[in-house]
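We modelled the chain as a single entity of 123 amino acids. Its sequence is:
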Amino acid sequence: MAMLESGEDYIETIYLLKKKGAVYSIDVAREMGFSRPSVSRAMGILKENGYITMDEKTKEINLTEAGKKKASEVYDRHKTLTTFLMKTAGVSAKVAETDACRIEHILSPSTFKGIKKFVKESK
């Protein structure tokens, strides 16, 4: 099942926050600038689709294996595209980050594969 762009953003945010420690819905809301009810709804969808689990007592959010895999893929696209845009377009890291976040969701796998190859070979 294909994940919507917003789902990919949530999963990537959880993935990055997890690197710093425990993650709760409030952390995701703060990081993304969304309301708690919006985040709560999204967490329910991610849970239903098997990407996250939520501890019933503490409400800590954890990525499932499928969630980790998907988040890792999204993060890889984001970082690769950021590097690509900085190298080829000469834009700042901030502009590249913003644009990469938009592009990462619509790029075909074959185009991304070519960009990744380019970035790897141009190091």
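As a brief sanity check on the tokenised model: The domain at 72-121 is CATH 1.10.60 (Diphtheria Toxin Repressor; domain 2). The chain is about 70% helix and 5% strand.
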